[in-house]
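Lest this sound abstract, we let one protein speak, letters for residues, whole numbers for local backbone shapes, and leave readers to judge:
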Amino acid sequence: MISKRPADYTIDIGPMGPIGEGEALLLRINRNCPWNQCLFCPVYKEKSFSVRSVAEIKKDIDVIRRVCDLLQTLSCEVGLAGRIGNQALEAFVRNHPEIYGEYPVNVTEEQRLALQSLRYIARWLMHGVKRVFLQDANALFMKAAGLIEVLRYLKHSFPSIDTITCYARSRTCDQRSEEEIKELKEAGLSWCFVGIESGDDQVLDILMMATLPV
């Protein structure tokens, strides 16, 4: 029997993803930032950092799989051959008022969060279910064994994924052993975005020259 609770169609979504990852699913590994001292970044200020449990993250992956399957089934039923667009989304929301409310006039907070999750998941489907970004700041902070388990579960649930990325601090990268980095790579982690900062003008000049186009 399919659950009709909004919570069973809702994933935890962080405040932002990286530039250039508009096609990626945002999967929240931790909440906020363990460093949180960058002067230029206001996103996580006055917010507590916490790592989500493997069970929590797997539950979100299950929700994403559930919504993807239901959306594609409905798309076929209404003659769209599995394609996901506004017509399929509107029909899905209309067919499940117990989950999404009587959108847009009568929606509870729980139903609003389910609708937000639906939009994220549907957008990912539209882009081919290829890319994933692990939120929030420094997903590599999670213990390697737990993150490896999550990556394997994610790839098993969605074999079409070809790229998984995250933010990471250089110090956190340095704290991971060569074997852990290798296992993370083998489990599916493609690369990490590491921000290099300095207050030294000479170092900044070198970094600027390294990023200029040839």
